[in-house]
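User: Please fill in residues for this 85-position structure.
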């Protein structure tokens, strides 16, 4: 599964600028619908267009590997099992 690290990039930007960054602000700056951004942030495994990833990389001034992380399915299963214990 691919995990989008949008929350982490927002936190980094907030630290750099010293102010709060909202999804609405990111949506306005990137042209990505706010609801789409919300789904990208909150829905595990959300499938998005590469165009959106490009816009986000441009906005956060980051490389794709700083925005997207590959998490093997085995790790997801192990993580879920540990939460159940």
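Assistant: Residues filled in for all 85 positions:
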């Amino acid at each position: 599964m691919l995990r989008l690290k949008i929350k982490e990039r927002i936190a980094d930007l907030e630290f750099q600028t010293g102010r709060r960054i909202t999804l609405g602000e990111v949506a306005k700056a990137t042209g990505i619908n706010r609801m789409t951004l919300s789904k990208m942030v909150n829905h595990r495994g959300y499938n998005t267009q590469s165009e959106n990833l490009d816009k986000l990389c441009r906005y956060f001034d980051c490389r794709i590997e700083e925005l997207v992380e590959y998490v093997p399915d085995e790790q997801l299963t192990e993580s879920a099992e540990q939460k159940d214990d």
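For context: The longest strand covers residues 2-4.
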